[in-house]
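Renewal narrative, Specific Aim 1. Our central claim is that a sequence can be written position by position from structural information alone. The example that follows is taken directly from our test logs and has not been curated for this report. It begins with the structure tokens describing the chain, in the order in which they were read.
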């Protein structure tokens, strides 16, 4: 991912909050940045002044948001010339699921929305089809998932899918997808990485890119739907009951 891509994605996720819920909405948006991996573990968040301006909040409110994130172990502040607020690297294996697990209806709602957004975006991309720089972006995102170390795989997987959604050409779609994907990632962080699942997901990624670049919307939607169904099955299996594969 280039610095330009990173800047565009931050602009998509970080937007002025509505009056009345500045603290809560700012916290939600920065959590999205972290869960989507737009700023990876060990990397620095934008400077306080830039964050406050993007979100349309005071630096006092922003500092309260960052304090909460630090208390939750998600960021750490460092002083000095090269200081700032840095995203903490996720511990190996992710976080364990709570004893009672997430709400089954909320999980189903989230997974359906994710499937609708991803399959729709895949179809739109294939219908265009992508050429030149856009096609290269997709190939580079695919390569990044293939070459990713296990601990960085889910971040690169997120960026791969986000790239396809962005290239559908609708900022509103991208913003909505970023929000739901951040929630899906929160659930994925509760389950283990399975080597066989990652291999299967990578084959699906390659097939999806082939369908998009060959201009086959029907195939792109079908591959994307199958891929989303695999993720859904895994999450149901570990968190609410069921089996499957995907990422």
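The sequence written for that structure reads:
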């Amino acid at each position: 991912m280039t610095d330009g891509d990173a800047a565009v994605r931050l602009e998509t996720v970080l937007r002025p909050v509505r009056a009345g819920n500045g603290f809560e909405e700012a916290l939600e948006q920065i959590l999205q940045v972290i869960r989507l991996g737009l700023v990876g573990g060990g990397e620095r968040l934008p400077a306080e002044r830039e964050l406050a301006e993007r979100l349309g909040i005071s630096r006092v409110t922003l500092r309260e948001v960052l304090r909460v994130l630090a208390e939750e172990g998600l960021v750490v502040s460092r002083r000095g010339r090269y200081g700032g607020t840095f995203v903490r690297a996720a511990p190996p294996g992710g976080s364990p699921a709570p004893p009672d697990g997430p709400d089954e209806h909320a999980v189903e709602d989230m997974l359906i929305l994710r499937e609708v957004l991803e399959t729709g975006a895949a179809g739109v991309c294939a219908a265009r089809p992508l050429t030149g720089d856009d096609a290269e972006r997709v190939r580079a995102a695919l390569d990044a998932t293939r070459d990713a170390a296990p601990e960085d795989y889910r971040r690169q997987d997120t960026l791969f899918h986000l790239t396809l959604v962005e290239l559908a050409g609708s900022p509103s779609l991208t913003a909505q997808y970023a929000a739901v994907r951040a929630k899906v990632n929160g659930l994925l962080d509760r389950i283990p990485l399975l080597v066989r699942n990652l291999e299967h997901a990578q084959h699906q990624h390659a097939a999806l890119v082939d369908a998009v670049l060959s201009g086959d919307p029907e195939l792109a939607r079908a591959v994307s739907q199958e891929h989303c169904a695999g993720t859904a099955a895994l999450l149901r299996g570990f968190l609410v009951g069921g089996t499957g594969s995907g990422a």
